[in-house]
Structures are given as structure tokens and as C-alpha cells.
Specification:
Chain A has helices at about 20-50, 70-110, 115-125, 135-145, 150-155, 170-195, 200-205, 210-240, 260-270, 275-300; strands at about 55, 65. Chain A is mainly α. A two-stranded antiparallel ribbon of chain A has the order 1-2. By secondary structure, chain B is mainly α. The chains are: A mainly alpha, B mainly alpha.
Chain lengths: ~300, ~260
């Protein structure tokens, strides 16, 4: 399962399988060339683009190569709020997804062990949202939250929502949408670690007179940590770059614009490529710092 | 975690699962709405949307484009990714850590960055955007998922089976195509299905590299401003039901196989 991407797996130290051979090169080369051409060089061209300057008296959207570091100052000054907001929303969404996803993963991976068919069914329900269009399921929430909808009616009845206020277009609805959309990404890696958890370890905790809460805190939780970390990365990274939930036509408004929103607007609408590129580099740099902390903890061999 | 706690987790998880289902049920229900142009308020049950899916402008062309892109991108990603996965498990080579990092990084790169990066490169190289650039972009983000999925399958392969083939004087090619490949096939199929699903539903990377071409998600995105036609719900629902059917069949046949094995 690809969702174990970030979950360290036990490597079988079978030296007999691994050998040096020219075949390895033939197997690796096409894919590696593809990745270098369409992953590494695009990142480099982003870096180059982020330092470009407008051509004097040039056309709209015409730039030439320069070393204009001020682009970074410009984007951080202009879009600092949106950048911070992205990481704030993504952190909140990861937290809520964890609060929903962890108990759910525990339930499917441990409580349902005695009911294999029910376990399989629940697992299918967790991955089900992947199979319906991301955009349509986000729009579904927009319509459920709409002014004439049942949720808004309930919220105004209990006084949370004043007259004329709506649920969509607020920070609440954007974080709600992000949380909803990334719950499976949080649940599946945690499920993958809990499903393998040896229950005898938990029993041993009880035998040694630890309370269930202590056993959970000192045995279950540390063993589930790799899944929690990978689930958090799998939620936080795409959530921080997402601009669909925050879009005006979906769950957001101009007040909820995120870094993805401004990258898209600068690149595709304003044709301010250097600004879009500089923002992308900033986003990538923050993510790389987070990932490298993770790599330092568990090493490169366990990345995949 | 006993007594009252035991039931709390059943109720909590049940509610979480219901929560996950709400927009799916909503989308399917509204595919039967007699909505005409904008599908916001329930106006009555009809089968018309299902019977004339292509009546809404562009929906079917967008759907066709999405299928075409997903098929080609999945093919490229599956072939290249499977080759790398085999090499990673079976061979020792220099720059191993660099290669692992190269495969891992696309998984941790936000889609906006992947999309903007490719678009910037195509812009600098003067490559016009179109179906081709979208296919390249999709193959790129699918490769790493394929590698991760297939790699797990290669690692769990019993080397004794291939050894037996060699003992029986099978040539390396025969051993690969008649023993290794059939054993890897379930993993390769799983990887291909995953990348098909990822490609079909991708919006952000596509949006940066599509030019004037329309895919199903980009159709929905553009239509969101002026109202989604119910035909879009029909297509999404049909894809959903088909995918769920596939998953259910494979899950339950796997569970049945495990039970049969447990009885032996």
C-alpha cells in the first residue's frame, strides 16, 4: 500500500539477493532520467524563474534572467499573511484529522481484528472518498453548508450564526474541508502500523499492573508513532499547498486565500512568473525542512 | 479501554465513517436531481441525467480526455516505476541513497510546486501546453507511488521460487517472465490502479499544464463558478460505483483466501 510510504518497514537483511550487475543500470536509467528531466530540472527552473526581472518596455508577462533576490522580499511582504495562513490551516487540519483518524485507525486495526469481514468493509469505507471526485465532494460540503441548508439553519437557531452570516467563506469551512479531504491520508498509515501491532505487548502492560491508560500511553502510542508521523506528513504537505478548499467557488473567500491560491493567481492569471516561482520555492523550503527532520530521525533507507 | 470505553470507540468510529460518507451520498443523490442547469436545490427525481450523460456541453469530452491521460500516464509510470522497484530491492548500486531520495521527494512536494515547476520549465523551453504536457506531469507524480507499491511486492517475494527455476535450467529471461513477473503482477496491477485513480482525479498539477485542454476535474472547477450540471455528478458517481465494486471484490476475495488458508 502506497500509504505506508513514510512508514519504516523492516528490511530483510538478505545479502544473497542483493548483487551488483549492469542490469541494475538498465532498470534504473529510464526512470531516473525521467525523474531528473521532469522533477529535478523543473525545480531548478523554478529557482531560476524566481530570480527573473521584467524586461524593460517588454510585453506583459515577459521576463529575463537576473539575480533579483528582491522578488523574495516582495512575495514575503505581499503574501506573508497567505503563507502563514496556509501553514496554520494545514496544522489545524492535521490536528483535527489526527483526532478523527487515530481512533478510527485504532478501531479498524485493533478492535475489529476479530471481525475480518467488518474490518475489510470499514477499510473500504475509509478509502471510498478517494474514488469520488475531490472537487465534487468539496462542492457537496459547500451546498450542505449553504444558507438555505440544514446546517446553517441549525447554527443560526443555536445562535452561532448571526443573520446574514454564512458558514462557507470562513476559516472554519476551509479547515473543515481540508480536514475532511485528508482524513483518509491520516487514517491509513496509522492503521498500517496498528494492524501489525503485537497485542501481547499490550497484554503484558496489563499483566504488570499498568492501567489501560498507562499501557496505551507507554506501549501502544510509541509503537504507533511511525504511522502518526507519516500520516501527519501526508496530511500537512498536501493541505498546505491546496487551493481548492480555500477557493472562492468552493469553501473559501478572498479572506481565506492560501499560498496555493496566490501561486496559481500569479502564475496563471497575473503572469507574474517570478513571484509565483519565489512563493513555490518558499513553500518547498519549509516542507523540505520538515521532511529532513523526519529523515534525520529514521534514515534514507526507510523512506520508501 | 474496557467497559464503557469499548462502546465509545464503536460509536465514535461509526460516526467518523458516516461523516466520510456524507458528501459521497450527496453527490450520488444529486446525480438523480431534475436540475436543468444548476444542481443546487432538489427539484425531483429523474433518470434523464444518467440516460443522457453527454447532453451537458463538454462533460463527455472532458471525461474522455481524463481517461486518455490516465491510461497513457499510468502506462508510463507503471513501466518505469516497476523497473526501478525491482532494481532497488534486487541490486546493489552506487548512489543508492541519492536514488531513494529522488524517488521520495516527489511524494513530499506539494502539487502546486510540482505543477508550477513543470509549467515554468515548459515555458522556458517553449513547449506548448496540451495533452502531452499533462501526461508527462501525471506520469511524474504517479511514478513514486508505483515504486513504493511494487517494491513492497518485490521485497516479499520468496527467492527460493526463482532458485528452483534456475535449478531446472531456466534461462534468466524464462525465470523472469514465467516466475518473477507473474508473482509481481498483483502488485503491478495494484500500482497501476492507484496511479490511474490519482491521475483521473488530479486537478492542481493539471491546471498548471493543461493549456486549453479540459479534463474532468478542470471542467468541474470551471463550472463551479456558474453551477455544476448534474451530468458531472453522474460521471463521478459511475466512476465511484465501479471503483468501489472493484475494491470490494478484491478485498473480499482476499479475505476469503486468507480464511481458506487458515483452515488448512
Amino acid at each position: 500500500m502506497a500509504f505506508s510510504a513514510f512508514t519504516p518497514t523492516e528490511q530483510k537483511a538478505d545479502a544473497s539477493i542483493q548483487k551488483r550487475s549492469p542490469v541494475a543500470l538498465l532498470l534504473l536509467l529510464p526512470g531516473v532520467i525521467f525523474l531528473v528531466l521532469f522533477f529535478v530540472t523543473p525545480l531548478l527552473s523554478l529557482l531560476l524563474t524566481s530570480l527573473q526581472e521584467p524586461v524593460p518596455d517588454g510585453f506583459f508577462g515577459e521576463y529575463r534572467q537576473a539575480l533579483r533576490w528582491e522578488n523574495y522580499v516582495f512575495v514575503l511582504e505581499t503574501y506573508g499573511t497567505q503563507t502563514l495562513r496556509s501553514f496554520g490551516y494545514a496544522a489545524l487540519a492535521s490536528l483535527f484529522a489526527l483526532l478523527i483518524g487515530f481512533p478510527l485507525a485504532y478501531f479498524i486495526g485493533i478492535t475489529l481484528r476479530r471481525f475480518p469481514l467488518l474490518q475489510a468493509l470499514c477499510l473500504v469505507l475509509v478509502i471510498a472518498p478517494f474514488f469520488i471526485s475531490f472537487l465534487l465532494r468539496t462542492l457537496a460540503w459547500k451546498q450542505i453548508f449553504a444558507i438555505e441548508g440544514p446546517v446553517a439553519g441549525f447554527f443560526s437557531a443555536i445562535g452561532i450564526l448571526g443573520p446574514g452570516q454564512s458558514i462557507t467563506g470562513t476559516a472554519f469551512s476551509v479547515v473543515f474541508g481540508l480536514t475532511y479531504n485528508f482524513i483518509p491520508f491520516m487514517t491509513l498509515p496509522i492503521y498500517a502500523t496498528l494492524e501489525r501491532l503485537d497485542l501481547r505487548l499490550v497484554e503484558a502492560g496489563g499483566d504488570l499492573y499498568a492501567s489501560p491508560a498507562t499501557t496505551f500511553r507507554t506501549v501502544t502510542l510509541p509503537l504507533a508513532a511511525p504511522g502518526v508521523i507519516s500520516g501527519t506528513l501526508l496530511t500537512f504537505i498536501p493541505a498546505s499547498g491546496d487551493y481548492i478548499n480555500a477557493s472562492r467557488d468552493f469553501l473559501g473567500s478572498t479572506e481565506t486565500a492560501m499560498i496555493g491560491t496566490v501561486i496559481e493567481a500569479n502564475f496563471l492569471v497575473l503572469q507574474n512568473y517570478p513571484a509565483a516561482a519565489a512563493l513555490s520555492i518558499v513553500l518547498m523550503a519549509v516542507i523540505l525542512v520538515l521532511v529532513s527532520i523526519y529523515v534525520r530521525r529514521s534514515g534514507t533507507e526507510e523512506l520508501l | 479501554m474496557r467497559g464503557f470505553g469499548k462502546y465509545t470507540i464503536w460509536i465514535y468510529s461509526g460516526m467518523a465513517l458516516v461523516f466520510l460518507m456524507i458528501p459521497i451520498v450527496y453527490t450520488i443523490v444529486f446525480s438523480f436531481n431534475d436540475a436543468r442547469r444548476t444542481n443546487i436545490i432538489w427539484r425531483g427525481f429523474t433518470l434523464d441525467n444518467w440516460l443522457n450523460v453527454c447532453s451537458a456541453q463538454d462533460v463527455c469530452r472532458a471525461f474522455g480526455n481524463s481517461i486518455l491521460i490516465a491510461v497513457v500516464a499510468t502506462f508510463i509510470a507503471t513501466v518505469l516505476g516497476t523497473m526501478i522497484a525491482i532494481a532497488l530491492v534486487r541490486y546493489r548500486f552506487r548512489f543508492r541513497n541519492t536514488t531513494t531520495l529522488l524517488i521520495f521527494l516527489p511524494l513530499t512536494t506539494p502539487e502546486v510546486v510540482l505543477g508550477a515547476g513543470l509549467a515554468a520549465q515548459f515555458l522556458q523551453a517553449g513547449v506548448p501546453k496540451g495533452l502531452g504536457t499533462v501526461i508527462i506531469a501525471h506520469a511524474l507524480f504517479c511514478i513514486s507511488f508505483v515504486i513504493v507499491t511494487v517494491r513492497a511486492r518485490v521485497a516479499s517475494l520468496d527467492p527460493a521460487l526463482e532458485e528452483a527455476g534456475r535449478d531446472l535450467y531456466g534461462s534468466p529471461q524464462q525465470v523472469f517472465w514465467r516466475i518473477t513477473f507473474p508473482l509481481l503482477l498483483p502488485g503491478i496491477i495494484a500500482a497501476a490502479l492507484l496511479s490511474f485513480a490519482l491521475s483521473f482525479d488530479d486537478f492542481i498539477i493539471t491546471n498548471f499544464n493543461r493549456g486549453a485542454e479540459v479534463t474532468f476535474p478542470s471542467f468541474v472547477y470551471t463550472a463551479a463558478a456558474r453551477g455544476i450540471p448534474p451530468e458531472a455528478n453522474v460521471i463521478a458517481s459511475a466512476v465511484f460505483l465501479l471503483a468501489i465494486l472493484l475494491v470490494l471484490v478484491s478485498q473480499f476475495s482476499a479475505a476469503a483466501r486468507r480464511r481458506r488458508l487458515a483452515k488448512l
